[in-house]
């Protein structure tokens, strides 16, 4: 069973991102502060849930959280500062947008660039341990999925409605055959050898 938060002494925000491994589109991040006594049946790491489950949980999280915010770094920023730094920046932007300032941050993963004047802890697989990080993972994922689905109609060849920009075999083939869209990350290389290796792995 997931705990609500990492510590109880200070007002805490859970933070997570979505889209680090994608070939196209922004990386999204979310920050969520949950109220005392919060519990939501089924809330877990977004990767453990179906699309339908995430979509059902999202409005409940947004309604019941003390504060929540979602932010992003686009593909051009990712190419400029690299995906790791872009993930940190997206989290900072989400934290900055919160309607009430947290006194402590918990970050999913093992690395983070400290946010000014707010202490933090990095929690490996934190989205499967703490409800506030799990909630952030769901908001980041669902908001990003919505963004990529909206782009799909303008660039249907890449099937972003289905793959959301992740490097599926069909997405890689489309990049190799058609070329990059304006939303692809130019520093994320796709080549025939990568495609062959990926096909064998799948």
TrEMBL record:
Statement: the UniProt record of this protein carries the keyword Nucleotide-binding: no
User: How is the cofactor bound, in the record's words?
Assistant: Manganese or magnesium. Binds 1 divalent metal ion per monomer in the absence of substrate. May bind a second metal ion after substrate binding.
Which reaction equations make up its catalytic activity? Endonucleolytic cleavage to 5'-phosphomonoester
Boundaries of every RNase H type-2 domain copy: 10-200
- Quote the EC number: 3.1.26.4
User: Could you confirm whether the keyword Metal-binding appears in this record?
Assistant: yes
Give a GO cellular-component term: cytoplasm
Instruction: Write out the residues that bind a divalent metal cation.
Output: 16-17, 108
Pfam families given in the database record: RNase_HII (PF01351)
Q: Which GO terms describe its biological process?
A: DNA replication, removal of RNA primer; mismatch repair
What family does this chain come from, according to its entry? Belongs to the RNase HII family.
PANTHER family assigned = RIBONUCLEASE H2 SUBUNIT A (PTHR10954), RIBONUCLEASE HII (PTHR10954:SF18)
From the Swiss-Prot or TrEMBL record, give the protein name: Ribonuclease HII
Its gene name is rnhB
